[in-house]
Amino acid sequence: MIAIVDYKAGNLTSVKLALEHLGVDGAITRDPAVIEGAERVIFPGDGAAASAMEHLNELGLVAPLKKVVDKGTPVLGICLGTQVICDHSDEDGGVDCMGLLPGRVKRFNPPDQLCKIPQMGWNTMRFKRKHPLFEGIEDDSEFYFIHSYYPVPADMAFIMGETEYADATFASAVGNGNLFATQFHPERSGRIGMRLLKNFTEWDGSC
Amino acid sequence: MLSKRIVPCLDVRNRIVTKGVKFQNNIDLGDPIEMAVRYSDGGADELVFYDITASAERRSIDIGMVEEIGKVVHIPFAVGGGIENLDDMYKVLLAGAEKVSVNSLAVKNPAIIGEGARIFGSQCIVLGMDPVRADDPKKFPSGYEITTRGFRERTGMDALDWAKRAQDLGVGEIVVNSVDADGTRDGFELPLTKLIATNVGIPVVASGGAGTPQHLIDVFQKAHADAAIVASMTHTGDYTIGQIKEVLDAAGVPVRKKW
């Protein structure tokens, strides 16, 4: 069973429906015991970093998520989930985050008004490394993004894929051991996104 | 590079996709679920569904349909029509839609877009607007007045003022649907699209008038739209999304080519 972590941060239905389509059992949950006992964990999220961290603290989910990462459970972060696993985000005047992946979160700085924030739509990801979650996916494939902030890992070795937008070449996929996270939404990225999710449902957490 | 999005819009009446000209004389075109799958498999970048009779019939949006779409479509889709309150927004998002589009409701109660953005996130609140040409530069400096309820009511609001205000309230995207161009297949209302797109910092979706691939090239290159709605030109089978993208790609417009 895959636990889809519910921390009052956006739409989890599309993740669950995508797993259903793949024939995989997914449960939307905020129960620490269910999260800790799951075979795999998806940590999604939309919205803002400050309220996300508030909810994670309120619901007592920070420690269970640290635990699953530490014990080797395959974990997939998506969008805001990918940002709040970092150490710190510049959003909302600066927010300390979960620190599961060393790094910071920065805002795009658009060169002009024609470069819209949020980045909304399909953009390409260039592979920086080989990873089991990229199996069967071509380099420079397009994925669906909606975001104004992006992760900046502390170590280049954590960058799995890169994308260009506004003033930045940013890490659109990051990873460290059994933790993998995308700034884009695989569950809304058509056939190619579904392939990445399918790869996750079969991944044992090793690289 | 971020691609320009091509977004088929499905106007749904009693679970049948329909299309009119300037919001009138609608003809029936097909089943929304089947069309959604066809578009999604055929390279559409996003989909929009409007439950066009929900508000006239004073009923809530057809959530059952939204759920069915969510099960079969794995690209983002927005839903609008008959959204009356925050609870309706929540239901639509919970059913699997990526975005909820509000139009008349936002005019009646602008604060609700701010509340929606705060609760659900800006990225999922879309403002739909239906501006019509207006020859009163004092009242309407942009040259366009906002209408609601499918052109049936004028609001006295200037289109650009409203777009800026909606941005300040927190919407994540604006769909600018020209009443004058809707369903004509004569091309987008370029001055209107350009005016809005160059004066707000959030993405702008051009809507109304798409008839040929050249119309899309124009709206992206001359009017700086981030996305464009197509309806009649693809619903009728005159063009596929793939054919449109080939022409756009050849003209240098960035489009998603593999799906």
In brief:
Chain A is an alpha/beta fold and 207 residues long. Chain A has six helices and 13 strands.
Written description of the protein model:
The complex is a heterodimer of chains A (207) and B (259). In chain A, 25% of the residues lie in helices and 32% in strands. Chain A is of the alpha/beta class. Chain A has one domain (2-202): 3-Layer(aba) Sandwich (Rossmann fold). In chain A, a hairpin with a 2-residue loop joins strand 12 and strand 13. The radius of gyration of chain A is 16 Å and the shape is globular. Chain B is an alpha/beta fold and 259 residues long. Chain B has one domain (5-250): Aldolase class I (TIM Barrel, Alpha-Beta Barrel), CATH 3.20.20.70. In chain B, 33% of the residues lie in helices and 26% in strands. Chain B contains ten helices and twelve strands. The radius of gyration of chain B is 17 Å and the shape is globular. Classes of the chains: A alpha/beta (207), B alpha/beta (259). Chain A binds chain B through residues 10-11, 13-14, 17-18, 20-21, 46-48, 110, 113-114, 116-124, 138, 141-142, 144-147, 164-165, 185, 187-194, and chain B through 1-5, 40, 45-46, 70-71, 74-76, 93-96, 98, 120-124, 172-173, 197-204, 224, 226-227, 256, 258-259.
Summarize the helices and strands and which ones pair or pack.
The complex is a heterodimer of chains A (207) and B (259).
Chain A: E1 2-5, H1 13-21, E2 26-29, H2 32-37, E3 40-43, H3 49-58, H4 62-70, E4 75-78, H5 80-84, E5 88-89, E6 95-96, E7 103-107, E8 119-127, E9 141-147, E10 149-153, E11 159-165, E12 168-176, E13 179-182, H6 190-202
Parallel strand pairs in A: 1-2, 1-3, 3-4, 4-13, 5-7
Antiparallel strand pairs in A: 5-6, 7-10, 8-9, 8-11, 11-12, 12-13
Chain B: E1 5-13, E2 16-21, E3 24-30, H1 32-41, E4 47-51, H2 63-72, E5 77-80, H3 86-94, E6 99-102, H4 104-108, H5 111-120, E7 125-133, E8 144-148, E9 153-158, H6 159-169, E10 173-177, H7 190-197, E11 204-207, H8 213-221, E12 227-230, H9 232-235, H10 241-250
